[in-house]
Design brief:
With about 70 residues, this protein is mainly α. It has four helices and no strands.
Length: about 70
């Protein structure tokens, strides 16, 4: 799965969820999440994308596809 960092950040901010809170919910490192949102990690493990989607209560497709 290829994540869309902009979508992850937009959803996270709309939920008023900090990176720290998302980190606690997913078990993923805050720095890793930050790099993912900024597009520095292009091929994360599917389990990481699934954990982020589950923590934010959205489908994985909501955070892996860019709007056209």
């Amino acid at each position: 799965m290829t994540p869309n960092g902009e979508a992850i950040r937009a959803i996270r901010e709309a939920m008023k969820l900090s990176i720290r809170a998302l980190s606690r919910s997913t078990g993923l490192d805050r720095g890793y999440l930050s790099r993912l949102e900024r597009g520095h990690i292009r091929q994360p493990a599917d389990s990481a994308v699934e954990a982020i989607a589950a923590a934010m209560r959205v489908s994985t497709s909501a955070i892996t596809h860019k709007e056209t």
